[in-house]
Amino acid sequence: MSKSLYLTQAEGNRPQSFKLAELLGALSYALDLTEGQPAGHCIRCCWIGTRIGEALNLPDDVLKDLFYTLLLKDLGCSSNAARICELYLADDIAFKRDFKTIDGSLSSALRFVFAKTGLESGLSERIRAIVNILQNGGEISRNLIETRCHRGADIAARMRFSQAVQDGILSLDEHWDGSGKPEGLKAGEIPMISGIALLAQVIDIFHNESGVAAALREAEARAGDWFDPALVEAFVAAQAAPDFWPSLAEPDLEAKVFAMQPARASEPVDEDYLDDIAAAFAEVVDAKSPFTADHSNRVTLYTDMIAEELGLDEAHRRWLRRAALLHDLGKLGVSNQVLDKPGKPDEEEWQSIRRHPVLSEAILARVEAFNDIAPIAAAHHERLDGKGYPYGLAGDEICLEARILTVADVFDALSADRPYRAAMPISKALSILDEDAGHAFDPACIEALKAGLARLNASVAA
Questions:
Q1: Which of 73, 181, 331, 450 is catalytic?
Q2: Is residue 246 part of a domain?
Q3: Is the Cα dihedral 401, 406, 411, 412 positive or negative?
Q4: Could you give the CA distance from residue 223 to residue 220 in angstroms, rounded to a whole number?
Q5: What's the domain range around 416?
Q6: What pLDDT does 83 receive?
Q7: What is the pLDDT of residue 462?
Q8: Lowest-confidence range among 64-68, 117-121, 167-171, 357-361?
Q9: CA distance 320 to 402
Q10: Is 331 a catalytic residue?
Q11: How far apart are the C-alpha atoms of 409 and 404, rounded to whole Å?
Q12: What distance in Å separates the CA atoms of residue 453 and residue 441, rounded to the nearest whole number?
């Protein structure tokens, strides 16, 4: 049996507690992937929005709620990815990224839809899609935003955040003049932290795209329609500080954000809360595609089943369950045009798929609480014979935990519906694993899975 990564990590000095703000700030890089934004978008929004809150002299408790709303504003964004691909026949990540750079007018939105819809589809498909959007555009837009905002608020609740943070995420796309969605709230009906979060988002996107002058121009142009004019005035005052704009481009911005008052007051995270956070981000990943709904939870179940049969102790299994929950974080950076494709991916699409374990590893490596599971996430598509990806590891280069996770992941992929085939019977899925035992998969892990499934069946039948 290969060496355990857990035992190797345990020999080090893993911190005993973690600050919530820093943990979520690092995980926010996963949310950036869903929107196609440059890495650090949520962190930059947190800097911008918190500085606006400080300019408004918001009380400490409101600043705290604002801080977490800014970090987590995109929690629900993966939930509309598949629908965007279906409706617009487009890459959801590129579509969402580019849509945010238009000026917000109806004419610009219509031009964008005509320019982006169905570019790689046949003419008749493209025409049908555009006609559908023109006829039902308002309802489509409202449904997409409603799904995203409600899912984000629900996940924030699962992560134990206050009602103010939940409401801040829920109302992110409401506009001061009532033209926003999903409820058409206006003026004082919109939570202030929602208005600041949307303003910070627009500022960061236009600053990244075209610079300081463009960000200022866009914020001021939308004052009175998208934004409360008082919030824009506070932004104009905040951005006049000498460190405001330069800090956004500095490599230590993350440290500056974590040095802000709300982060300094951040509570430590215990082991139970770490489990909740891992489960919440697994939900973000699984919401991206109807074909992966609940995938992470099932993989976690099978992983724990194998680990128990192999005799791993409870602390070891708990650690491994987090790796199973978070192993597919990198899929947030893969378009649903690829994930949900019914046919064989082409070479470019295959490269995108092969990259997702690297993205998972890169995100988890940033998170102090989860960086010790990053190598497992990176290796869950490796094979014993060296023919896996992304690194072509072989034999003892693949740790025990990655071997367990690989068997669990492949078993779930085989026994669940996929866009290119229906779910296989469990017996067929196990026979496919057996065919590659010793070549791709660890035979001991396969036997442990069979034993665990047999015990589960026996307990259900009893």
A1: 331
A2: yes
A3: positive
A4: 5
A5: 5-11+270-461
A6: 84
A7: 57
A8: 117-121
A9: 9
A10: yes
A11: 9
A12: 17
